[in-house]
């Protein structure tokens, strides 16, 4: 089997990149590419809901909760909601790196580390930990946590509660999707035949 050789630049072990020749890694299977894309998209509905909320649309909250939010939205509450949505989407998008070449070699345009090989464990360990945490949070939400939050008097009810639930429901899939894609990435990069 032919090997694609990519020469990396100076080594810096503190950030998980190495100066080495990277052997060809088999491409991700179709199911993994689809799962990675789904993981990246799983945060979009809640992010959009949160951004709309951050700009002061009450979205069904009432009483003291609505008054507390209204004091900061628009304002710092808006910045918080947009930043949180961007952070979640950015982290979810990293899943795509596990099925793309930039998950093995940092793109050259990235300052300081561009063109260097990514050590597989520097991707696998945080991704698996993230998958475990996200799966646990998703299970907690699905089995009582979400219903408990919606049972509070100031929480959205009726159509507003349904819209909020539909916006946040895809997040429950993020952890398992990330876990499956990470196991595939580990299989292709760590456990491949040499």
Features:
elongated; 2% strand; 7 helices; two-stranded antiparallel sheet; 194 residues; mainly alpha; disordered N terminus
- Terminal CA distance reads 10 Å
Q: In which range does the helix fraction lie?
A: 55-70%
Residues in β-strands, percent: under 5%
From the alpha-carbon coordinates, what is the Rg to the nearest angstrom? 20 Å
Number of helices: 7
> Which outline best applies?
elongated
How would you state the average pLDDT, rounded?
86
SSE topology string: EHHHHEHHH
Q: Regions with pLDDT < 50 over 5+ consecutive residues?
A: 1-15, 17-21
Number of strands: 2
- The largest beta-sheet arranges its strands as 1-2
- Largest sheet, if any? 2 strands, antiparallel
Secondary-structure-derived class? mainly alpha
Gist of the model:
The chain has helices at residues 30-41, 44-54, 63-70, 76-97, 120-150, 159-168, 171-189, and strands at residues 17-18, 117-118. It has 194 residues and is mostly helical.
Topology (elements, then pairings):
Elements: E1 17-18, H1 30-41, H2 44-54, H3 63-70, H4 76-97, E2 117-118, H5 120-150, H6 159-168, H7 171-189
Helix pairs in contact: 1-4, 1-7, 2-4, 2-6, 5-7
């Amino acid at each position: 089997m032919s090997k694609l050789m990519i020469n990396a630049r100076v080594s810096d072990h503190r950030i998980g990149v190495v100066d080495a020749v990277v052997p060809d890694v088999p491409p991700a299977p179709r199911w993994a590419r689809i799962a990675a894309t789904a993981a990246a998209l799983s945060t979009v509905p809640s992010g959009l809901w949160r951004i709309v909320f951050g700009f002061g649309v009450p979205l069904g909250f009432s009483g003291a909760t609505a008054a507390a939010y209204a004091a900061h939205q628009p304002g710092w509450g808006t910045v918080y909601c947009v930043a949180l949505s961007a952070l979640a989407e950015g982290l979810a998008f990293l899943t795509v790196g596990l099925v793309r070449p930039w998950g093995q070699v940092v793109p050259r345009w990235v300052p300081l580390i561009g063109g260097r090989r990514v050590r597989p464990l520097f991707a696998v360990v945080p991704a698996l930990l993230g998958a475990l945490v996200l799966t646990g949070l998703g299970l907690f939400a699905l089995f009582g946590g979400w219903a408990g939050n919606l049972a509070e008097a100031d929480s959205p009810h009726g159509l507003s509660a349904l819209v909020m639930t539909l916006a946040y429901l895809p997040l429950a899939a993020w952890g398992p999707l990330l876990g499956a894609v990470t196991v595939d990435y580990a299989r292709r990069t760590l456990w491949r035949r040499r």
